[in-house]
Amino acid sequence: MSTVTTSIVTPDGPVLEEDYEMVSCTAENGELGILPGHIPLVAPLKVSSVRLQIQGRTDYVSVSGGFLEVRPDRVTILAQSAERASDIDVDRAEQAKQRAEKRLQDKQANLDQIRAEQALNRAINRLDVASHAR
Amino acid sequence: MASLRDIQSKINSTKKTKQITKAMQMVSASKLSRAEQNAKAFVPYSEKMQEVVSQIAASDDATHPMLQTRAVKKTGYLVITADRGLAGGYNNNVIREVYRTIQHQHASTDEYTVIAAGRFGRDFFKKNNLPIAKEIIGLPDQPDFADIKQIASEAVEMFLEAEIDELVMFYNHYNNAISQEVTSQKLLPLTDLSADTGRSVQSMYEFEPNAEEILKILLPQYAESLIYGALLDAKASEHAARMTAMRNATDNANERIDDLTLTYNRARQAAITQEISEIVSGAAAQQS
């Protein structure tokens, strides 16, 4: 089966660069599945997991603050942060989740509220992705 | 002339200083190589980002406040300095340049505000009663994107909410290990985007949902990444500057030790000569 070269790049360096048969991810307005030969496309991604499939195996990567750039032979995901399922620090994500939940209950200023929600979102996403680690 | 013992203690203390400066030089050298690696790891991200952003910005139906120049009522200065000194002119060069620009461009403090990254810059602006909008200190030597994310997005927000009408960054650009120069870069509005789109225009993208929506998400991220890039650059410069400063200090200490050793030996010899001549003259006095 044909493959598409996929790379995930963050400001702290590349996270992954491999060939995959299919890339699925959650864009701002819905799920996207990219197969080789896709037309050039740019789409922002939600804080979500990216699923990469090859030979019956699925790799999971958590991304936040990212977008997807597709060319027929290449998929590039630029994200402000991204971790493979096996690299996620579960304890830290768990702590971040609790911290954010606590802050949400405190009900402070509006801005903090939004930030806490985003932090919670990221933490939940990380934990979700980490649960897929092999 | 100083006594032998005085000179000896001076030599010893200079030697101690030399040990410290030498150690700091080596620490900075290893930090510099780490910083260079970080800057290198950032290159693929920034290049790709630049490429995509400039292509989207080049498509004609896309407009965004961050791309538009508006009348400048208030300027934001993002000043990146170090938290610690002992780095030669590193901090002073940046601060002097910013201060001169401010004096030159603005009549009153209403026309600008400073975003200070690094303790030296912050302390200077505070001491001189210049307005500081935001500050961040205690950035690690090898910063992650997460470390700078908050202040970067706050700076971008200030622009979007029209608190400031342009944002200029001042930092030390890293040329190589022995040369760093103060650079000012106009960050916002993003005006020089379409400059190098000629390279890969052949692939016109589909935008999902549309170019405008994407710009809304992408441009803040792009500006934040530029700030992060500047920080990495500045950190590399900082370590390089400190390394150079400490090497100079070590060289000076060596020179001083040599000088003092020479003086010490001269003094020792003079003392011996004097002793001999005293003995000789004493013996001569007994014989006569």
From TrEMBL, chain A:
Primary subcellular site in the record, as a coarse category: membrane
UniProt feature coiled coil, ranges: 90-117
Pfam families, per database record: ATP-synt_DE, ATP-synt_DE_N
Taxonomy, superkingdom: Bacteria
Cellular component GO terms, alphabetical: plasma membrane; proton-transporting ATP synthase complex
Localization per Swiss-Prot or TrEMBL: Cell membrane
PANTHER family the record matches: ATP SYNTHASE DELTA/EPSILON CHAIN, ATP SYNTHASE EPSILON CHAIN, CHLOROPLASTIC
Residues in ATP synthase epsilon subunit C-terminal domain copies: 87-130
Record's bilayer topology term: Peripheral membrane protein
Name the record gives this protein: ATP synthase epsilon chain
Span of the signal peptide: none
Family: Belongs to the ATPase epsilon chain family.
UniProt cross-references to NCBIfam families, sorted A to Z: ATP_synt_epsi (TIGR01216), PRK00571.1-3 (NF001846), PRK13446.1 (NF009980)
One Gene Ontology molecular-function label: proton-transporting ATP synthase activity, rotational mechanism
Record's keyword annotation contains Ion transport: yes
Keyword terms, alphabetized: ATP synthesis, Cell membrane, CF(1), Coiled coil, Hydrogen ion transport, Ion transport, Membrane, Transport
Reported function: Produces ATP from ADP in the presence of a proton gradient across the membrane.
Domain ATP synthase F1 complex delta/epsilon subunit N-terminal positions: 6-82
TrEMBL record, chain B:
Record's keyword annotation contains Membrane: yes
Similarity comment: family membership: Belongs to the ATPase gamma chain family.
Protein name, UniProt field: ATP synthase gamma chain
Organism superkingdom: Bacteria
Known role: Produces ATP from ADP in the presence of a proton gradient across the membrane. The gamma chain is believed to be important in regulating ATPase activity and the flow of protons through the CF(0) complex.
Protein keywords: ATP synthesis, Cell membrane, CF(1), Hydrogen ion transport, Ion transport, Membrane, Transport
Pfam families per record: ATP-synt (PF00231)
Assembly description: F-type ATPases have 2 components, CF(1) - the catalytic core - and CF(0) - the membrane proton channel. CF(1) has five subunits: alpha(3), beta(3), gamma(1), delta(1), epsilon(1). CF(0) has three main subunits: a, b and c.
NADP among keywords: no
GO CC terms, sorted: plasma membrane; proton-transporting ATP synthase complex
Gene Ontology MF: a single term: proton-transporting ATP synthase activity, rotational mechanism
Membrane disposition: Peripheral membrane protein
Organism: Terribacillus saccharophilus
GO biological process, any: proton motive force-driven plasma membrane ATP synthesis
Compartments, record wording: Cell membrane
